[in-house]
Structure formats: structure tokens, C-alpha cells
Amino acid sequence: MGMPVTFEKVVVGSRWEREQLAQLWGYESFHALARGVFTPANDNKILLFVSEEKPSDFTQYEDRLNGRQLVWDGAKGHQSDKRIASADRNGDEIHVFYRKKHRDLFTYVGRFKVLSCELLTTEPSRFRFELID
Questions:
Q1: Is pLDDT at 8 greater than 70 in this prediction?
Q2: CATH assignment, 15-131
Q3: Between the chain's N and C termini, which has fewer beta carbons within 10 Å?
């Protein structure tokens, strides 16, 4: 179990490995952050770890960052879809870490808001976000 997730040392444009973030936030290992969506316990933060180009043996989600907008497919299991879709209404903050290729470091892009979402059940839900800071 980690400490509260804060962004005092995580500034826009800074580059990170998941292991570094896990250590910063007091997690024993990076495995808590190993998925595309991380929602720390008892916190209002939703962290998206987005890789645009994925290895061929990974699920090929449609994820891309275009300027201030992010197009993103939710996870196949839909575990976080509803929470992400209602983040603004519920007071949750969405923070995005992005990398072009699977083995690159993640760059902290900033906080985003949901512009639109299509909640699906038989395929990944589709989201569009916009950078707010």
C-alpha cells in the first residue's frame, strides 16, 4: 500500500518509468501501476498510462495523443469505464502518462477532462479527452 499520490515532483513534461513512480509514491513494487489505468485506493485520482504503439502480441487499443486531445480505448474488462466517464461529476482527476512506443519512458502530460465517451460492452469503450492544464 502506497502513500497518497501527489504531483509535487511529477511536473508536466517530466519522464518516468513505472518503477520510479511506484517508489515516489511508496509502493513496494511497480505492479500496482502495471496496467493502463491505475486508481489509488482512497484517492480521487485516475492515472492513465497510454502507449500509442504496442507490441504485436498486445491488444491493439486505439490510443493516440493529438496536441491537447487524447483518443483512448478503455480496457476490455471495462473495470474503470464508468468511473472515468463520470470523473468530472464525481470530482475525480484524470492524469495522463503517455509514450509513443512500448519501451519508451512515460511523459507526464497533465490533467485531462472527458470530452466524450461511448460506453460499450462487447468491445473497448471509446473516450476522447482534452488537456486542462
A1: yes
A2: 2.30.280.20
A3: C
Q: Which is it for the CA torsion 73, 63, 86, 14, positive or negative?
A: positive
Helix (H) or strand (E) holding 65: strand 64-66
Of residues 8, 16, 3, the one with CA closest to residue 107:
16
Parse the chain into domains and list their residue ranges.
15-131
Query: Nearest CA to 110 among 65, 44, 63?
Result: 65
Q: What's the maximum distance between 2 C-alpha atoms anywhere in the chain?
A: 39
CB atoms within 10 A of CB 76: 12
In the 8-state DSSP scheme, what is residue 74? Answer: P
Cell 483512448 sits on residue: 72
**What does DSSP say about strands 45-53 and 93-101: parallel, antiparallel, or unpaired?**
parallel
Mean pLDDT of 69-93: 92
